[in-house]
Amino acid sequence: MRTAELIEQAIDYIEEHLHEPIELDRIAEASRMSVPNLYRMFYAMTGHPVKEYIRKRRTSEAAFLLRQSELPANEIGYRLGFDAYQTFNNAFKRYTCLTPATYRQSEFIFSFERIRLLEQVSYIEDREVSERYSDVRVIRLAPQSGIGYLHLADSEEGIEDEAIRRFRNALAACDIDLGKMKLWGWNVDKDAVAPKFGYQLVATGDTASIPGHPRLRTVDVPGGLYAATWVAAQSGSAIVAAWNRMLSEWLPGSTFELGSHGFLEEFQQYNGRIVRLKLFLPVSRRQATETIDIVTRKEARTIRFRAEGPDCAKLADEAAVEWILKHNRVGDASFQLLMSCSYGNASEDEGYCEIYVSVPESFVPSEEDAPRMFQLEGGSYACVTTGAYGAMTGVLDRLYRWLGSSEDYMPDGKRAWFARYLPDRSADLEHTDFERAVGVECYVPVIVRHELKGA
Fold it and tell me: Span 150-166, mean pLDDT?
């Protein structure tokens, strides 16, 4: 039976028990999969982590009952399987941005319908990607000029907010209302001198000339081909997540690759506040087809840096970088960099990230390094060579979906996937984005289907 049919059985089970407590091992049993493979394949086939799919479906059913019945909100929450009203309220607000009571009186409609995979399998890739990421559009932005302000800071934390505040004040001193202009911004790469970070702002509109202010000058907003999406101006983590979604998920599955021009943000203003951002990811038409191969890898001796929770990627990366700098291994080709992280799970609290530094057989670990030594298993893997797309989610989607339709291979849930970074030795790493300076070999462990039957 194909993987799409197994996931359809999982969806059938969820729909039949939507009003009851649902245990993942029961869903896995109904779909004849292990829980780890359920996590991976459900996400790869639907674009939604299984737990989040359940919460979205329950929220959608609750939204319907709030409009079509007079049941109290807490009763609706209990009927839809939420164990407490506060849990229901938090989930409802997360997906609708409204409380149940406010939603009942509003005109906004929230709907998340059951996914029917067997109706989608015949879709071509372009249509599939466009439906899965309906909020992402590829546009050609015309270049334009405006009033520019470069803000410098010693920390990236809050750099955009502070830049906008100072820019607004500088324009107000020249009797220019920033609220009546389009506002653009992007990060500026700087040499490793203080201040270390820069953020460029540009206001475009009907202003005839640049005002006489020492910090303001004419700056061009670069044009070009971009993938664009809107995001609410919430926390910085929400904006980072939106960027990661485009780079790590949408881009690898699209017919585009990362362009050579810069990342760009447009700020939408209302009553003196930034309420939305439009994110512009630079793209160009993909020139080459990335093929998936089955390869055999030997086990690798590594030092592992593992972190869990919301900041796991940052913490694991920082620990690995600290070790590499401490041991003066920058640019040493005998020490390779690899990465693995959780896939198919939306909960930040349950997420993990592991950075591996592969070491040669001659390497003798210190007493401090000994507990970190880790043997990365060898064996058969589905492999694709591609760009460095963040958490590699979209690349993993492609690999797992390919395995889902394969007659010969299936994922091996006993081993972890990993990515091997391939730095471009000719690139200037200090002045080039990581995504443009590094290639990646992405490996998903596989087993032969007939071997599984024989077992």
Answer: 91
